[in-house]
């Protein structure tokens, strides 16, 4: 049973998507546990891909079945490798995002560098920015 109701997750993600659009950011990648829990209702290892417009995808690296049980999100998929992220994001955003927001306030530099390398192979003109923390004022 999901820990957070679907309508609450939709509200939280909707607020983030509004923030992304006002900042002209095409999508956000969320990977830190507390932010994953806030937006998905689960803290299983993975990345939440949130396009500025469209449905989010929770790509789970570990304990996929538990994430599917805990999260009320519509699309929870298994993630074998970070190399899948560009295609997943393109699929959910409907195009190749040019500006992608990350959790710069808590994201380790090594993770940012790894993402840049993965996206650089498939989307060399990707521009990284802070996704901001619109949820912080709503907690």
Automatic annotation (TrEMBL):
InterPro entries the UniProt entry points to: Creatin/AminoP/Spt16_N, Creatinase_N, Peptidase_M24B
Bilayer-crossing regions: none
Domain (Creatinase N-terminal) ranges: 12-121
Pfam families in alphabetical order: Creatinase_N
PANTHER family listed in its UniProt record: AMINOPEPTIDASE, XAA-PRO AMINOPEPTIDASE P-RELATED
Protein name: Creatinase N-terminal domain-containing protein
Organism: Candidatus Segetimicrobium genomatis
């Amino acid at each position: 049973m999901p820990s957070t109701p679907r309508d609450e997750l939709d509200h939280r993600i909707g607020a983030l998507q509004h923030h992304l659009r006002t900042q002209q950011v095409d999508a956000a990648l969320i990977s830190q546990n507390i932010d994953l829990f806030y937006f998905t209702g689960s803290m299983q290892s993975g990345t939440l891909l949130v396009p500025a417009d469209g449905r989010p995808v929770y790509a789970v690296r570990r304990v996929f079945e538990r994430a599917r049980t805990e999260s009320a999100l519509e699309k929870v998929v298994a993630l074998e490798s970070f190399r899948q992220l560009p295609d997943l994001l393109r699929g959910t955003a409907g195009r190749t995002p040019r500006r992608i927001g990350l959790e710069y306030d808590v994201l380790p530099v090594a993770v940012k560098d790894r993402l840049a390398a993965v996206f650089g192979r498939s989307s060399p003109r990707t521009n990284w920015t802070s996704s901001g923390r619109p949820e912080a004022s709503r907690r």
